[in-house]
Amino acid sequence: MNTIDCLVIGGGSAGLAAAISAKENGIDQILVLEKESEAGGILQQCIHNGFGLHTFKEELAGPEYAHRYIVKANELHIDVRVETTVLSVSEDKVVRYSNAKEGIVSVKAKSIILATGCRERTAGNILMPSKRPTGVWTAGTAQKYVNIDGYMVGKRVLILGSGDIGLIMARRMTLEGAKVEAVAEIMPYSNGLTRNIVQCLHDYDIPLYLSHTVISVEGKERVEAVVLAEVDEYKQPIKGTEKRFEVDTLLLSVGLIPENTMAEDMGVELSPITKGAIIDHQYQCSVEGVFACGNALLVHDVVDYVSEQGALAGKFAAKYLKEGLTQEKGMPILAQGEASFVVPQLLKTTADESVKLYYRIKQPMKKAKVMIKHQGEIVFEQVKNHLVPAEMEQLVLKPELIAKLSDECVLEVINLGN
Amino acid sequence: MKDIAIIGSGILGSLLAYQLSKYEISVVLIDKESDSCNGISLANSAIIHAGVDPEENTLKARHNVRGNQMYPSLCKELSARYLPCGGWIVAKNEDELDALVELQARAQSRGIPCDWLDQTQVRQLQPNIHESILAALSLDTTGVIYPWEVSHHAVSAAYNNGVECAFNHEVVSISKSEVGYHITTSKGVIDARIVINMAGLFADRIEQMVHEPSFSLHLRKGVYYVLDKKAVNLSKRVIYPAPSKVGKGVLIVPTLDGNMLIGPNSKNIDDPFDISSDAESLKEVKEKASLLLTDIPYHLNIRTFAGIRPTSHSKDFIIEHHKDDKCWINVTGVDSPGLASAPSIVESVIEEMIGSMLELRKKNVFKPYKPLPTLHALTDAQRNEYIAKNPKYGHVICVCEEISEQEILDAIKEPFGAKTVKQIKKRCRPGSGRCQGGMCEPKIVELIAKEYQIDVTDIRFDKEGSWMFTKEESQ
């Protein structure tokens, strides 16, 4: 069986950034396995712009952003194998993959970077009542049909879920000539970025029904109508609030789940909140030599941070291979109050440079206090304005602060109200 | 003029076509659907019941017991899979215990192997069993199949042995002449000497096209949850409560590919097209299943579906010549345990009914169903042999179910090949996994278009009305 230093599963924005970073940090033997026919991941179908503002200080379309990383990986002679699917990964890091050229191959990896992205929640996941006619797609699948393959999936459209993909598809379908009748959102606030609500809905007069959900999908063979109803505080439909829309298509933008089927198989411990791996500040999972980054780690809203995490995972994988990383348990960082999670979840004594914490909040807040508590004392605090669950928050722990920590610490967010 | 027209290609019509294709007679299989096994047989619990549930002296009892015995060898003959998982009927109170005792006696009188398990044994073997369960009747001969796999393989073999398959042919009227029946369909006329009415939910309407009604059906709908393969350890066996008046209640069913089925409820309906999974029914199934097992992981649900079963006025199967017309045979009211009973029903229709009207001579040459390779069931060495011969076996299209490009092409290219997305899903499973086709469907669509050299916008998900893409306006 062949051995490889660093095997990256997934050639999207996280995987490419990880591979490039590992190479730049001195690792030669890197293999990136990508199941699609080209690298770049989901960005290839995100033809709208707005990518790369943080990294490149310019607004790129998804494929352009991906292209920069593909070019870089090529320049560095990184082996990216496309149309190559990983079939399984064992606890001792033996990776089985399959493609047309090599057949099924097992390779022993010294380190693995999980950059498998995320997948869309489906009608089944949300137990949507339906007669199950054709014409219901997840927004991302519809996006692939429209943007990559060039087929329109319908003429009159309703979208359930106001996450970013849903909002962007509302605009996209409109520009392609469809009539988007409405976007419905079960929560009392949108789960998309504010700029997308303005640019994708307001600019095209598409109504957004907050606290609404789909209570039936009608139609025998193709969707003929979708019925919405308002929901109460327990998300239960309220009788008498039904609204019927005669549409032929229903797109679902009802959440993303980090893709961790293989991580689970190899015994990587997952967070029940993020559904991604539990990592330390070096992006290492509970299995030694296995790193996670990007949407496989936690669902992001901005790609720049996916690449940023990929680069860190690659850097620490290189460090692991060259000099080893401490395998001590580490100090937990817990999320409290209005913070729903914090990643990384563990800090190790070897943290000698700044560590960026990513967290999300549970509800929109006009003003909030963010604190780091250690042994009951507040060791850091800041006040933030206009926080929404749709936007990932960040907090950088400086080395001098980290030096003060000796065990468990807490990231707590308190709502300061209006 | 055909000797026999079978109306309906569910499990019954498919198996009948298959068995008749072994004889020197001409047969046509008619269905309004685009594919076999698209109605009652598609959406049910997929269980081959052991045969203890039906009451004494019923056709259900006779055919269930015999059908159960026939399945393992029938599946082998058709290269279809059979899961000998066994089943438990469980009791949670005195009434149900009494019912269980009665079922045990019935099993013994019918020669069905069974074991009585007390609460300790039940808890030991199934730690997640609900605390109220007092005992179980364990039936080793309960099994699980994929009805569409059995049905499709049967129809393919029938087709390869000369049965004419008239899919997308909706019967619109039937008239009787001195020599037989004149069946007008949405796609032309078919003449046959004998008609076997196996039209499932529509059998009453079909009969009434030419005869006075001799039976009536009432319809019951049941919804199911399909759980991700990650829930595979929920139960290795079928589990259901001791019977009530409305059937077997909610069942826990392991499937051949590791998913779990949970359902169905039983709701009276009038509309044979009402296959909605409604919120009320989903809630009911959840409540009832929670009395069988604890901690069912509904967050792993990947799909819900609903199936409809027809119950006859007599509550038993109807398998009879029409009273005024021997050449018209009704096989209807086949609700549970219809799937388990199907091979035996078909056997009796041929031997006891058709055999009395036609001379049945076996063909000298019969071509059995030739199975297509399922790569993920093979060892890596075996898979690499396939890939060496055809690299497309190495290119995985459906990641969730690990299906290669060539397996999809095989399903398209085989003699009775798939032409719609759903037909491919039924034949080799892409779209059945946790992403529900979100990732692979665009690739499947391209493959269908390429193989049939048709425009992508002409592809249907399933039936003719189930368009997927808009057409360019042709001005």
The CATH superfamily of the largest domain in chain A bears the name FAD/NAD(P)-binding domain
The proportion of strand residues of chain B reads 15-25%
Second rung of CATH, namely the architecture of the largest domain in chain B: 3-Layer(bba) Sandwich
Strand content of chain A: 25-35%
Structural class of the secondary elements of chain B? alpha+beta
On the 0 to 100 scale, the average pLDDT of chain B is: 95
CATH topology of the largest domain in chain B: FAD/NAD(P)-binding domain
Number of helices of chain B: 12
The CATH class of the largest domain in chain B, by name, is Alpha Beta
What is the CATH superfamily label of the largest domain in chain B? Answer: FAD/NAD(P)-binding domain
Number of strands of chain A: 27
N- and C-termini, Cα separation of chain B: 45 Å
* Residue runs with pLDDT of under 50 for 5 or more positions of chain B: none
Principal-axis shape of chain A equals: globular
Of all chain pairs, the largest interface belongs to: A-B, 47 and 54 residues
Radius of gyration of chain A: 22 Å
Helix content of chain B: 25-40%
What does this structure look like?
The complex is a heterodimer of chains A (418) and B (475). By secondary structure, chain A is of the alpha/beta class. Chain A has 8 helices and 27 strands. Chain A folds into 3 domains: 192 residues, FAD/NAD(P)-binding domain (3-Layer(bba) Sandwich); 133 residues, FAD/NAD(P)-binding domain; 91 residues, Sandwich (Immunoglobulin-like), CATH 2.60.40. Chain A starts with a strand and ends with a strand. The mean pLDDT of chain A is 95. In chain B, the strands form 5 sheets. In chain B, strands 1, 2, 9, 10, 11, 12, 19 and 20 form an 8-stranded mixed β-sheet that branches. In chain B, helix 1 packs parallel to helix 8. Chain B is globular.
